[in-house]
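Lab notes, practical 5.
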Amino acid sequence: MKTTIHDTLETKSILFILFVLTILSVSSSIQANDEQTVESVTIIGTKEDVKKLPGSGAVINNEDLQKAMDTDIHKILSAVPGVYFRTEDGYGLRPNISIRGTSIDRSAKVTIMEDGILVAPAPYTSSSAYYFPTTGRINSVEVLKGPSAISQGPSTIGGAINLISTPIPEVNSGKLVQEFGQNGMTRTHAYYGGSQGNLGALVEVHEHSSNGFDRIANVGGNTGFDKSDLMLKARYESGIHSLTFKYTELDEVSDQSYVGLSQSSFMSNPRERYGMTQYDAMNNDGEQTSLTYVGDFDMFQVVASSWSNDYHRDWFKVDKANNLKAHGVSNGINSVISAANGGDANAQAILDGTLAVQVKLKHNNRFYTNEGVQFKVSTDIANHAITFGYRDMEDSESRLQSYECFDQSSSGTNSALVSCSSGYTGSNNRLRVSQATSFYIEDTITMGDLAVTVGHRSEEYDQVENRWDDGVPTRTVLASGYPKAKTGEYSTTGFGATYDVNENVKLVLGFHEGMSPIFGGDAEQADNTEAGVRYSKGTTNLEVMYFSSDYASLKGECKNSSGGDCDAGDIFDGGAVDVSGLEIAGSWMFEGEGVSYPVGLTYTSTDATFGTSFDNGDYWGTVAAGDDVPYIPSSSMALIVGFITESGLNGSARFVSNGSSCSTASCGTYQTIDAHNFLDLSLRKSLNTNMDVYMIMENVLDSEDIVARAPKDGARSQKPATIKVGFSYEF
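Output from the prediction step:
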């Protein structure tokens, strides 16, 4: 690449400003409707807009979010069929989300946005979501599936998730939410803003912390987190034009570990961590800025954005026990857990802290950038609704990873940390950069009761990787064989159709080619089909949808969470995979005397299997045709039942059940994840027009099921029964 990231961003910013100025000047000669309202940047809109989609989708609005005051995105998305999740820390800090059978690890195969802008640290270079927008400050959530998802790439096989931030109020107003809970949990969410004349502004803070619910054996210590967000918005609005600047600063310190439990340890105490994880911690920080122009003209609408996201994370965690081979056990931490599951007494003693060993920890230290410009133009011509979109962006991942060690004594105590790094070399000192351009065009043609949407998307990207062997982070001596370059190009086409049988019933049919980019490898591709029916009458809504994805070749990327015997970033081919399933989503409102009873139900049945047999011990393991794809449950269901009284008292019960799955395709004895569930209760009371008080009880039954094995052999339990209380005050 001939230009640097800084130079490219500067050029894109200048072009973006020129684009906005051109639109403003052209608009002076166009007849405009000054009474039109400039809307927020969304990919769907309202719940009513969902009913018109030529495919599947869902909107979880602010009213929905206020019912349970969720801060865990996994729980919020349980209300959307076809979305699967794997909890890891019990708080949803680093989500693992799959849509319709995409790889669940780190949500890497799902397009994730905030206010229509890609927010994964590096969507093309390293899409794993070690950063996810703080859910507690989010105003609403959109989920787009089916052929409409090709407008939201780069990953278009499963779908897209767009989180909408707090909007600038039209009048001077604000809100304060304060929560207290078990395990030292506190959460403060506050914002204030307003509009005067052409100007509007908002300042928002979100502080969330906990001491954690796990106990560290032998040595003690916190296992929670402290996470803070600051967001500022400023808007200039004049008639049909709106220009919004947004700045977000984020910071997180988490005493989190990757190390799961052996089966024996889990059965003894599912919520106790090993003493060797005493020093495990993640430190994150970042800044995000964006400038968004929205213009709503008589003949067309324009949305254009320029953004820059910088993110740093250092997950310092147990990697190896260096002298384990002297005890006949491989030294990787997942190998130790696997050996303990197999009955190896030395391995279990090492985990328990009763066998002396040196423990090696790695600074998974990464710096990310994600920046670019994008725009879309929409217009209606006769019976055609046409949208054209374009994006030009650049992202990167820089690694500077070192090691520290400590000695674990046979009494379970740990010495102080000392440097034991072999130096910044090879994969521990590397820079990956991607430059990508994409465009899409959609045309919805309405012909009476039939509406057909045809879409096309094109992606082009250039990728370069460098590695250095200096041993120090000066980056002057390139490793042998570097730089390595890769060029990717992909086009996808899809269509969706809806047919109004009558005013209550709508038929839906769609097909699209999907793609997920892979750094340094060929893109993952799949043909996707869906067909279903929607019914809506009064307060009753029902959607039943069949879906299928035919993967030409499923791709797996080696990560620490995968537990494979491989180098992080290596790509492995999983061959042909078939995914199919049935989604059901329904909502009803039953009226009693002075009381209303809302009911919501989502259900998904899924069959996701490998189409070929192969042996890949480094990542997939030994796979036989017909084996299930890891972590995709056979079924999932969420049932929410509530009540709303005229006196301002309301409440709800949410029951979520997930079917069985496995952490590997071969699904060994200690790689199974049995069906599990949880029950949450909420109660809320309006004291007056400004103030509510509430109480939330999570996992009321205190279920201790295994909800994940990560890495692949380490068992993890869900968060225990916890209670939090709080109040919400609007002013």
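Observations recorded by the TA: The chain has one domain: 5-730. The helical segments are 5-27, 47-50, 62-68, 73-77, 263-268, 333-341, 345-352.
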